[in-house]
Amino acid sequence: MTSKSMTRPSVDKMPTYVPGKPIEEVERELGLSGIIKMASNENPLGPSKEVRQAVAQAIDRIALYPDANAYYLKDTLAAELGVEPANLLIGNGVDDVIRILAETFYQPDDEIVIPQPTFTMYEAYTLLGGSHPVLVKSKSGWGNDLESLKMAVTDRTKAVFICNPNNPTGTIVREPELKVFLDELPRDILVILDEAYSDFADDPNFPNGLRLQAQGYTNLIVMRTFSKIHAIAGLRLGYAVANPQIIALLHKVKDPFNVNSVALAAGVAALNSKKHIDLSKELVQAGRRQFYGELDELQVDYLPTQANFILIDLKQDSKDIYNYLLQNGIIVRPTHSFGLPTCIRVTFGTAEQNDRFLRVFRDGLKKLRNGGI
Q: CA 111, CA 113: separation in Å to the nearest integer?
């Protein structure tokens, strides 16, 4: 029996997710030490003191099943967001939320409209659910072209994804154009707004999905994560905010104990770590200024970003500069899997990490321009 005959056809169609290389893998493969990872949009500050304390205390409870209803986290999060606990679904990362949405709503004849390039798990879970992904390339090439998304909507459309700020480009959809899009879309089509990087956005016209929900857009589902600004990616914690009717349906489908007790405790502590949140935002803003200045001097193209990462376009296959950086102990993200083979995505680090990246990048770029690495 072949693997193809053993699996559902939808599994064979799924793209394989390509994560950023972990530090341990590079240490094994290249025999290096002192490696820095600037590939997966993680927070270089690590978790706050409050989170570390909460995690240590939660260890005593791991013999017991976690709270399936995530009562304390929902209560704290609802107060923070200005919503009710009934508006919240807690997930094992945003990936879990995307999967639950697919298992709850998608049917075989449904079409799910997905801008390109963007986070690949939208397409993966659409295919796994047996529905049809409609991949819409933006006119600019950088994702989230709302006019093109609207033109892709048919009577079979069940949902539209918008990642804002967009991964991997860091570009945004602004509030006026998003409201026009929502107004023109039938209200029986779900709009899934992924705001994983919204904490880093400082554009005055950046839309707040929760504020739009309060204005009556009841088909809007907002997803957010604790992985980025709160620096607990390893614990896997994310959530969705939607109207209570949608949330009630999602709760019927989610695994009974989908979020572990350590993550639940860490989430409450993270929300109360205001100083850490402010420091994380300041770090990203400083990183933007540092990278913009250096890349302008090097005459390298990049996209101004509203996220905690930057997309750099080398105008040629990026594999050589990626490998050069890797050989020098710096892990970044090549974006071939996003359909952007000439680019790399770099997470902002500490000032020292940014300095090291820019120094090695400058050396590699000089070699590349002088005939190759």
A: 6
